[in-house]
Specification:
The protein has about 270 residues and is an alpha+beta fold. It has eight helices and eight strands. Strands 1, 2, 3, 4, 5, 6, 7 and 8 form an eight-stranded mixed β-sheet that branches.
Length: about 270
């Protein structure tokens, strides 16, 4: 029985498009319902959505302020769907979306309503990638970007952003998908903040290095009798006025002490 269960286990890979409505929680309930209705119409009107759904290769997962689409067709399906959605949004300026794409393991589950649903690391990572972006961004995980850049159609649209720290301190490689027509070419705010932190750390290291160089210079330019490197103040020369004053004081002191017996007198 155990061997039979093991043979039935399989690893399913889903190509996930995670969609989020920016500023959704700040809207009134009526506005939220209206935006979700418009978004559902836009998404279901894309060719990738219709083809995958008609083939039984698509699972929709509502998320409250958006949705997750899991394609089981090909790795470029979520990216193509995201591009179609971005084009359609030009006639719906009130809807501000950010989207994240990742391919990873997923598994079907049965929810509390006894309906088929889906979960897994592939969906979670797609959401983490999306969280790195702002309104208008279409962000891809490094894994997906490496697959798409093998196609000349996608390569000009892919712009590497580096790594971003997400939930639980996990760092993921992120790529920004944009062109003159779709996407957001601006650097996401999370990456802007990361650049500022790195710049501060870099300048702090430069300051420490300069301080160490100055100390080394002082140590090797001055020594004491034991050969130990030390910093000493150079003795100051007495001014002309001080030296004249001291000379006058010595002459006055000699006059008070009386004539010198060894000195010859003028009357002798």
């Amino acid at each position: 029985m155990a061997d039979e269960q093991k043979t039935n286990l399989r690893l399913d890979i889903g190509h996930v498009l995670f969609i989020d409505i920016v500023g959704y929680s700040k809207l009134l309930l009526k506005q939220q319902s209206e935006l979700l209705r418009e978004l559902n119409e836009i998404v279901s009107g894309t060719s990738e959505f219709r083809e995958a759904e008609s083939a039984g290769k698509l699972i929709r997962l509502p998320t409250g302020d958006g949705m997750a689409l899991v394609f089981r067709t090909n790795p470029e399906a979520p990216a193509q769907c995201a591009v179609e959605i971005a084009r359609a949004l030009k006639s719906h300026p009130a809807i501000q979306l950010r989207m994240g794409i990742h391919s990873g393991p997923v598994n079907e589950i049965v929810d509390v309503n006894q309906r088929a649903n889906i979960a897994g690391a592939g969906i979670n990572m797609a959401q983490r990638v999306m969280d790195c972006g702002d309104a208008g961004h279409i962000l891809l995980s490094k894994h997906v970007a490496e697959d798409l850049e093998q196609d000349d159609r996608w390569r000009p649209l892919l712009h590497d952003l580096g790594t971003c720290e997400v939930k639980h301190g996990v760092r993921v490689g992120v790529t920004n998908l944009y062109s003159d027509e779709v996407g957001n070419p601006q650097l996401p705010k999370k990456f802007q903040a990361l650049q500022k932190r790195r710049s501060r750390v870099r300048w702090a290291k430069v300051g420490v290095a300069l301080g160490d160089c100055r100390c080394l210079h002082l140590r090797f330019t001055q020594t004491d009798s034991l050969g130990t490197k030390r910093c000493r103040k150079k003795p100051r020369r007495p001014s002309f006025r001080k030296s004249e004053r001291r000379k006058s004081q010595r002459l006055l002191h000699r006059g008070r002490a009386g004539p010198n017996p060894d000195q010859p007198r003028a009357d002798r």
